[in-house]
From TrEMBL:
Protein name: Enoyl reductase (ER) domain-containing protein
Source species, domain of life: Eukaryota
Matches recorded under SUPFAM superfamilies: NAD(P)-binding Rossmann-fold domains
Keyword Acyltransferase: no
GO molecular function, one term: oxidoreductase activity
Ranges annotated as spanning the membrane: 6-23
InterPro entries the UniProt entry points to: ADH-like_C, ER, NAD(P)-bd_dom_sf, PKS_NRPS_Biosynth_Enz
Pfam families linked: ADH_zinc_N
Species annotation: Vespula germanica
A Gene Ontology biological process term: fatty acid biosynthetic process
Keywords: Fatty acid biosynthesis, Fatty acid metabolism, Lipid biosynthesis, Lipid metabolism, Membrane, Multifunctional enzyme, NADP, Oxidoreductase, Phosphopantetheine, Transmembrane, Transmembrane helix
Keyword Lipid metabolism: yes
Start and end residues of each Enoyl reductase (ER) domain: 2-152
Length: 153
């Protein structure tokens, strides 16, 4: 159990370092954190709250509101379908978010990319699309985004 906990802490540290190094987190950034109720999601939400970012997240609304009451109710979406896209685009007046921490796969990854703002930064911590060699639409790069695959292990 001790080793598992230590490995988990290292994963969180790598993820947070990637947010600063690869995503270049800046004041007033909007961030979408998929699976905000998981351990890494919670660590990143804590960081984003401390830094004053506008936070969007997915999964387990009741848990997230209980743990992070300052997150706007209208900024919590569902990661089991693609409805989170509507929330992001409505709440940002179509501009999208500056940073996405993603762990979703397939069509949800593709839709997440559509939620990025111009010059947005996408951090992929999931492995499924990498191991399956799934393709990204090159159209998304017209928005001058950056895509970073982050291998936490």
């Amino acid at each position: 159990m001790q080793r598992q906990y230590s490995v988990y802490i290292v994963h969180c540290i790598y993820c947070i370092a990637a947010l600063y190094i690869n995503a270049g987190m800046q004041k007033d950034d909007r961030i979408l954190i998929h699976a905000g109720s998981c351990g890494i999601g919670q660590a990143v939400i804590n960081l984003a709250l401390r830094e004053g970012y506008e936070i969007f997240t997915t999964e387990r609304r009741r848990f997230l509101k209980g743990t992070f009451p300052s997150i706007n109710d209208n900024h919590i979406g569902n990661s089991r379908d693609t409805s989170f896209e509507n929330i992001i685009l409505q709440r940002t007046n179509g501009a999208g978010v500056d940073i996405i921490l993603n762990s979703l796969a397939d069509d949800k990854l593709q839709v997440s990319l559509c939620c990025l703002a111009h010059k947005g930064r996408f951090l992929e911590i999931g492995k499924f699309d990498f191991t399956e060699n799934n393709q990204l639409s090159t159209k998304i790069f017209v928005k001058d985004i950056s895509f970073h695959g982050i291998m936490l292990d």
